[in-house]
Automatic annotation (TrEMBL):
Matches recorded under SUPFAM superfamilies: Thioesterase/thiol ester dehydrase-isomerase (SSF54637)
Stretches the record annotates as Disordered: 144-163
Domain HotDog ACOT-type residues, every copy: 8-120
Listed InterPro entries: Cytosol_ACT, HOTDOG_ACOT, HotDog_dom_sf, Thioestr_dom
UniProt protein name: Acyl-CoA thioesterase
Alphabetical keyword list: Hydrolase
Organism of this sequence: Mesobacillus maritimus
Spans traversing the lipid bilayer: none
Source superkingdom: Bacteria
Pfam families the record matches: 4HBT (PF03061)
UniProt KW Hydrolase keyword: yes
Family under the similarity heading: Belongs to the acyl coenzyme A hydrolase family.
Amino acid sequence: MDLAYPVERSKTTQTRLVLPPDTNHLQTIFGGKVLSYIDEIAALTAMKHCNHAVVTASIDSVDFLSSATVGDALYLEAFVASTGRTSMEIYVKVHSNNLLTGEEKLTTESFLTMVAVDEYGKPVPVPKIIPSSEEEKRLFETAAARKENRKNRGLIGRDKSKK
Ligand SMILES: CC(C)(COP(=O)(O)OP(=O)(O)OC[C@H]1O[C@@H](n2cnc3c(N)ncnc32)[C@H](O)[C@@H]1OP(=O)(O)O)[C@@H](O)C(=O)NCCC(=O)NCCS
């Protein structure tokens, strides 16, 4: 597909509040809860980019860098880092903010692969991206190395008979 859109067009942000049911006995948020927020914002971003339904093909990496505590705000930001023929690599970062002190920390970084699909679940081509900020360009330029890592993990190009 020759169509290309600026990364900014589908960039998505969300704010969440860390609530008691989402935390462990240390009052810090469960990783799985953060992951569900990440999966949702990645899907929204991908759908905004390609204007199709999408499925999560893989959560390629997730790094929990610091914890967030009950009462903190979570600021999620997601954008398309690179595209394939039918897949979109989405980068998500999550900052926590202690609303009482104003302290803000990067808590989580993640890369996910979302695939655009038609009404039968069959992959369909997606537009390319036009990165503009330094961060967008850096992630775009390093996408091939991350793709190679995914291949080495055996997640791409695996023997379909073993599905
Ligand atoms: C993702 C899915 C649509 C791929 O279907 P498929 O028949 O393997 O399609 P293809 O082999 O043509 O691959 C389509 C694209 O997905 C990518 N892909 C497939 N599996 C992948 C994986 N595990 N990780 C990363 N990318 C993957 C391919 O590289 C290809 O990208 P490209 O077109 O940009 O080159 C299919 O495996 C699926 O529906 N999976 C379940 C998704 C789901 O339900 N997710 C919710 C959580 S369970």
